[in-house]
Amino acid sequence: xxxxxxxxxxxxxxxxxxxxxxxxxxxxxxxxxxxxxxxxxxxxxxxxxxxxxxxxxxxxxxxxxxxxxxxxxxxxxxxxxxxxxxxxxxxxxxxxxxxxxxxx
Length: 104
Description:
alpha/beta; 4 helices
């Protein structure tokens, strides 16, 4: 899983040829800790088909602000450099997978 910084967001996410799942979270966030292993598993299961990245809102404040991240965890789904779907809050793995499958 790629750990994002503001400086590499555009290159990693917006210019990606693959669909991208971006997990906006923070180390101190309880629900984020529940979502993290799910996102990591998805990254392994979809390697080569989807880019999965983690964006700590405290490490990427400009990016979090740009995309209006008000609650964490928030997962944004990108395709062709555009946000095409999102998840706010913790959810079971199947919710993330269903949204991701629509992008493939």
